[in-house]
């Protein structure tokens, strides 16, 4: 018995030594990888250029700003950042609804008839893609990140048209629960899009809800709400508010796992339909993996480590099967053209199976946060390499690696730089 015990101890010691050596090798790789610093420097340089989303988008979007505001706070004038955040609330609607974003009036050139005016911000035009349900939650997260980076909680007490920003954030949550909430499932709804996308699958008005729209529930919108509710709890000073956000967060997370998590297949189902599906009965939508929404669900602490490992295996296999350049692959398999509306993205185009660092980078962050360090480093490398090869943070990449969309997409720069910073911080903390 004593012999067996000593053998077990020896195996344990050898195993620990092996893990330590492996960890040291990874630390050396990270610390000696000059390309990481090069890409981080490029991202910081881009942040100095302002707040527009990218070279092809001269607007300020809440969903974009949310993903680069932390790095922006380190490289840009924080007073200007605060002004840009406050501007969103000048366009908040009476029901609490928040818009996608705004643009200086003299830069409004695309002729959209569905725009918004504000008497208190006459120099700007507001706009909104109504198929989305992440504008309110994106802005809440951006405000929270701003406070965390700067320590400036006073922004919550600043008044816009008679109400404090914290009061307006509360109104925005109330709007979601009033306008886009399913009492049956206890989750929020939106139009049917590709995972986190802003294009509805039926065609029609594409970015706006219309007579073709099929309302549905997905993991992305609800995971974004969960993160926002956690942020609201941390920003609240009233104990009653804190309790409200905590209870609502607990409910959203529980219902996501109850209704959207497919335990047998270790994946989230794409959609729950409120009144009918836009797809034919012969189409098995649950064969599709939603990579972006899954990454956000991990950020919202909805999956345990075993489940994270399982979805990561799916993602890696999907990248291999598709031939995609990186783990930024949005969905797999992509939706076939024959089940989509007129003019909607073909397979492996744009949000229907394109490769987006904007979300792949967020998955890398969650891998680092949850201890999958080696996997994070290996899977991040293609994203780092293509920034240097193409000399830019492109919006998305085609299946053959060809860059597409804006060449200076700040969302891509923000999430990738944060991944690099997190990886370097991990390495610096190793003994």
**Secondary-structure arrangement, i.e. CATH architecture:** Alpha/alpha barrel
Strand content: 5-15%
Give the helix tally.
13
Which range best describes the helical content: under 10%, 10-25%, 25-40%, 40-55%, 55-70% or over 70%? 40-55%
State the strand order across the main sheet. Answer: 1-2-4-3
Globular, elongated, flat, extended or rod-shaped: what is the shape?
globular
CATH topology, what is it called? Glycosyltransferase
Return Rg in Å.
Answer: 22 Å
What structural class do helix, strand and pairing data support? alpha+beta
CATH class assignment: Mainly Alpha
Please, what is the average pLDDT?
A: 94
- Number-wise, the strands total 17
How many individual domains? 1
Distance between the termini: 35 Å
Poorly predicted spans: 4-17
What string, H for helix and E for strand, traces the elements in order?
HHEHHEEEHEEHEEEEHHEEEEHHEHHEEH
């Amino acid at each position: 018995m004593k012999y067996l015990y000593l053998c077990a101890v020896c195996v344990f010691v050898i195993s620990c030594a092996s893990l330590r050596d492996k960890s040291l090798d990874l630390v050396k790789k990270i610390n000696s990888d000059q390309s990481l610093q090069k890409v981080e420097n490029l991202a910081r340089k881009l942040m100095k250029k302002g707040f527009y989303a990218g070279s092809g988008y001269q607007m300020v979007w809440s969903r974009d700003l949310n993903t680069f505001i932390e790095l922006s706070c380190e490289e840009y004038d924080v007073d200007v950042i605060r002004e840009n955040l406050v501007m969103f609330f000048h366009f908040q609607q009476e029901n609490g609804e928040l818009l996608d974003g705004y643009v200086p009036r003299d830069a409004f050139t695309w002729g959209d008839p569905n725009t918004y005016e504000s008497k208190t911000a006459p120099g700007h035009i507001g706009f909104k893609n109504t198929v989305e349900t992440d504008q309110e939650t994106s802005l809440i997260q951006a405000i929270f990140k701003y406070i965390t980076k700067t320590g400036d909680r006073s922004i919550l007490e600043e008044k816009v048209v008679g109400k404090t920003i914290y009061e307006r954030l509360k109104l925005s949550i109330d709007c979601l629960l009033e306008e886009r909430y399913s009492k049956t499932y206890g989750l929020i709804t939106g139009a049917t899009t590709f995972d986190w996308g802003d294009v509805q699958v039926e065609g029609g008005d594409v970015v706006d809800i219309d007579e073709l729209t099929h309302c549905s529930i997905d993991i992305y919108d609800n995971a974004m709400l969960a993160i926002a509710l956690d942020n609201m709890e941390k920003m609240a000073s009233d104990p009653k508010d804190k309790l409200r956000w905590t209870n609502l967060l607990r409910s959203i997370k529980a219902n996501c796992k109850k209704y959207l998590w497919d335990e047998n297949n270790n994946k989230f189902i794409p959609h729950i339909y409120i009144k009918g599906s836009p797809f034919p009965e012969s189409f098995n939508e649950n064969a599709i993996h939603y990579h972006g929404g899954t990454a956000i669900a991990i950020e919202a602490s909805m999956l345990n480590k075993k489940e994270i490992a399982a979805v990561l295996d799916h993602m890696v296999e999907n990248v291999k099967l598709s031939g995609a350049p990186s783990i930024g692959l949005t969905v797999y398999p992509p939706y076939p053209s024959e089940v989509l509306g007129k003019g909607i993205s073909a397979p492996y185009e744009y949000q229907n199976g394109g490769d987006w660092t904007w979300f792949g980078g967020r998955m890398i962050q969650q891998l680092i946060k949850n201890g999958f360090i080696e996997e994070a480093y290996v899977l991040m490398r293609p994203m780092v390499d293509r920034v240097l090869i193409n000399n830019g943070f492109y919006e998305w990449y085609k299946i053959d690696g060809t860059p597409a969309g804006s060449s200076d997409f700040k969302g891509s720069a923000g999430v990738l730089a944060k991944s690099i910073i997190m990886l370097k911080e991990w390495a610096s903390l190793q003994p």
